[in-house]
Design a protein that fits this description.
216 residues, alpha/beta, 6-stranded parallel sheet, 14% strand
Length: 216
């Protein structure tokens, strides 16, 4: 029997290590899909997603996206047939973005220079990610060492400007009740992890894995 395939799309600036504690059902083969460089600072998320989708090598995969990766997995599902989209700590539609991501956040992104917006982001990152263990903190330290500010600026703009209202027919949306970047009160997930934060992919991995076992 041939294996099915799950493509993992991480959050902004993260890598495959954030998925290291998840356990997937038997019969699934996992593939990490790295981020690519935007062609221009204003490349539409739809065109970026089409380029990402061309790197999928197996028919009808499951797309599992974390945070911004969840938004990207929905955009990719517009371009290729998928078995299912799994969202972790993410949003499905523009209505699930918190309202304060509109005017003020967009203005700050446009006006603040990189040295303020990114080089001094440690406090905001730690506050939002809700990391708990030394392993999680080490991942965040690696993230904060990255200097590819052009990609980060493009990705943040894509999040703030996201206008999606379409949802794939088959999806699973797992969200934490204590998520800070995407507060639960704005989100309508299929599964809620009580007291789960934005980094629950690592510190609540066992509970997420049990949901994946049931749903996939």
């Amino acid at each position: 029997m041939n294996n099915k395939h799950i493509y993992l799309i991480s959050g902004l600036g993260a890598d495959e290590r954030v998925f290291s504690r998840l356990e997937f059902p038997a019969g699934y083969e996992t593939h990490f899909l790295p981020w690519i460089q935007p062609l221009t600072p204003a490349e539409p998320i739809e065109e970026y997603a089409a380029r990402m989708a061309r790197r999928i090598l197996h028919p009808n995969p499951v797309l599992l996206g974390l945070s911004f990766g969840g938004m990207m997995s929905i955009e990719m599902a517009r371009h290729i047939p998928v078995e299912r989209v799994v969202l972790l700590s993410s949003v499905k539609q523009k209505q699930e973005l918190p309202p304060y991501y509109n005017g003020l956040a967009r203005m700050l992104l446009r006006r603040l220079p990189d040295r303020i917006l990114f080089q001094r982001r440690q406090y905001i990152v730690r506050l939002f990610m809700q990391s708990k263990t030394e392993e999680e903190l080490a991942l965040l330290r690696d993230y904060m060492q990255k200097k590819d500010f052009s990609y980060m600026r493009w990705a943040l703009n894509a999040i703030l400007q996201w206008q999606n209202e379409w949802v794939p027919r088959h999806y699973v949306h797992i969200h934490g009740s204590a998520d800070r970047p995407f507060p639960r009160r704005y989100v309508n997930p299929t599964h809620t992890i009580v007291n789960g934060g934005h980094f629950m992919v690592m510190n609540r991995a066992a509970e997420i894995s049990r949901i994946l076992e049931r749903e996939l």
